[in-house]
Design a protein that fits this description.
Layout lengths: L1 H16 L5 E8 L13 E8 L13 E5 L6 H7 L2 H9 L6 E5 L12 E2 L3 E2 H16 L9 E6 L1 H12 L6 E5 L19 H5 L3 H13 L14 E2 L2 E2 L1 H9 L2 H5 L3 H5 L3 E7 L5 H13 L5 E5 L7 H17 L5
Parallel strand pairs: 3-4, 3-7, 7-8, 8-11, 11-12
Antiparallel strand pairs: 1-2, 2-4, 5-6, 9-10
Helix pairs in contact: 3-12
Length: 330
């Protein structure tokens, strides 16, 4: 009988000593903010939740949360393949900088929402800042407060990070935009898009998808089917109102309106690669933040739009947020 007790104690000791690992869970989150959009994009979104190593072993511990937004014409699943979130979180956890990472899928009919509220594509800004945060705080052991929430993203997700962050400073304490796009005003598109059918547009090339993505996000028109948006040209000529709407949604134009919100952030980070096609956008935003005296971490590094993202997520982004979350309490 004694030997059974000894074996049981030994087994428990082995289990207690077994290493804990980060793990990825897939959830479907219903977003009331996305209901009824004219494009028919589903309000039920796949969300990847990456839990830190100690989450399954320390039932009393609560964690800060990093929300990460993917780029256009992509998905959360693709970014989960590009960036080894669980392995990165495992490595970060070994340094006691544990957090939960949340990666929502925000793909739409034209490959992206610009993380903007639109009756056509859906209120994706509200989905991220309200619906998703509410779901995560309600289903996981989070530190459910601003001081323990960060927002980051790549490319269009970088734009979304800055946009949502400056408009919701009560929700997020720190922002990091990796290779952000769409920060400079975008002029009129090719008039050829006026002659496109919905089917041709949906199956068009990248330039086509971007044109209709911007139109449905920034110049929606519920009375203008089948796109339910106003294009930037009419009869081959630029439409001043649509051009103005595009300019108003540029990150550099928005920054001046949200200086107090940006200054309220504990930390802001932004970077750009030397051979990145969105380099002018990031440089302009960097200069705009400097102009208004908004403190931020800035890095101009060697690479292109994608090649350094996985490495920099682990070596730059996670330490950045670990420092931003330092001192946060449940």
């Amino acid at each position: 009988m004694l030997w059974k007790v000894v074996l049981a104690v030994a087994a428990l000791a082995v289990l207690a000593a077994a290493p804990a690992f980060a793990r990825t869970e897939k959830h479907v989150v219903h977003g009331p903010a996305l209901e009824g959009n004219l494009q028919g994009n589903s309000p039920d979104r796949t969300v990847y939740v990456i839990l830190p190593p100690s989450y399954g072993t320390d039932g009393d511990r609560r964690y800060p949360v990093l929300y990460f937004l993917h780029g256009r014409t992509s998905t959360a699943e693709e970014y989960d393949g590009l960036i080894p979130f669980d392995a990165d979180l495992q490595a970060a956890g070994e340094g006691s900088h544990e957090m939960i990472i949340v990666v929502p899928d925000t793909d739409t009919l034209f490959g992206g929402s610009m993380y903007t509220n639109s009756p056509t594509s859906g209120n994706f800004e509200d989905f991220i800042a309200r619906d998703l945060v509410r779901y995560v705080d309600g289903h996981f052991r989070t530190m459910a407060r601003r001081e323990a929430r960060g927002l980051a993203g790549h490319s269009m997700g970088g734009y979304g990070t800055l946009r949502i962050g400056m408009r919701h400073p009560e929700t997020f304490v720190a922002l990091y935009a990796m290779n952000p796009c769409c920060l400079l005003p975008i002029g009129a598109s090719d008039p050829k898009f006026e002659r496109m059918s919905l089917e041709d547009a949906v199956h068009g090339d990248s330039r086509t998808l971007v044109n209709f993505e911007l139109a449905t996000a920034w110049s929606p028109n519920p009375r203008n089917p089948p796109f339910y948006a106003d294009l930037s040209t009419q009869d081959g000529k630029p439409v001043p109102l649509v051009i103005a709407q595009r300019a108003a949604n540029a990150g550099v134009a928005m920054a001046a309106q949200y200086v107090p919100a940006l200054k309220a952030m504990k930390a802001i980070g932004m970077d750009i690669a030397s051979a990145d096609f969105v380099r002018p956008d990031a440089l302009a935003m960097h200069e705009e933040l400097l102009k208004f005296g908004i403190p931020h971490r800035w890095e101009d590094y060697q690479g292109d739009h994608m090649d350094r993202v996985p490495d920099r997520f682990r070596s730059v982004l996670l330490p950045f947020f670990a420092q931003a979350f330092a001192g946060a309490r449940p």
